Amino acid sequence: MPHLLAIDIGNTTAHVGAFDGDRLVFSFRLASTHTRTVDEAALLLKQLLADAQIPPSTLAGAVMCSVVPVLTPVIAQAVEVVTGFRPHEVTHRSKLTIRIATTFPEQVGTDRIANAEGFWVEHHTAGIVVDFGTATTFDVISQDGAYLGGAIAPGIETSAERLSHKAAQLFKVAIISPASPIGKTTEDALRAGLYYGTIGAVDEIVSRIAREMGGAPKVIATGGLAHLIADGSKTIGEVDPILTLKGLRAIWLANHP
Residues 20, 39, 111, 139: which is the catalytic one? Predict the structure, then answer.
C-alpha cells in the first residue's frame, strides 16, 4: 500500500510519521538541530524509513509544516533526495477544509494551521486545541470551521529553562507531576510552581476563550507534555498526541485530490 510521509518541524523537536490510509503506522521524534545539513537529514530519514520497513518507493507523497525557517529547505531537500519528490510545504495559501479568519493569515504558524485542520476534520465542531511545545499555543476553531486565532504562552520546559538561566540559585528540573503543591525542597518547589502554574494558566485561558465563543467548545490537547498537564486540568477533555500529523495528512489530501 502507498504511504504518506508527514513531518512537523518544531523549534525543539521534529515529529516524523507515515500513514497507511488514515492509520499512522510509524512515528518518531528527533531533535530539531538547526545546523543539520541536507546530507545528514537525508541519511537520518533513510534510516528511519528502513527501521520502519517502509521503502521510499512505497511513498505516495510527503507533507510538512515548519516553524524553523532555517530547517525548512533542508528537510524539504532531504525528502526529495530520499523519495525523488518534493514535499508539500504547508502555508496559509494551501487548500484547507478550514477557513483562516485572522487579520494576517500569513503570520499564522503552519503547525497551528495543521492543528486546526486536524481538529476540524476529526470533529467538525467548535473547539480549542492546546499544543504543548516550545510555546503553549491555543488554537480556536468556530462552529462553522473558521480558524479564529488564539493565544500563545511560554511552554512549560521553556519556562523551566529560562528560570534556571535567570535565577542564580535555581536550576532546571524534570517536568513531572509533583507530590504536593508545597515543595519541601527547592527542586520540589520549582516542580510544583511549573506544573500547577501551567495548569492554572491553561485552564484560565481556555475558560476565557470559551466564554468569548459563547458556548462549550471541545478542548483537545496535543504535544509532548499534553498527557501530564491534561491529567490535572479541569478544561482539557481529550488528548490526541498525533493531531498535528493528522492535520498534515488532511492538508495533503485537500491539495492532492
Answer: 111
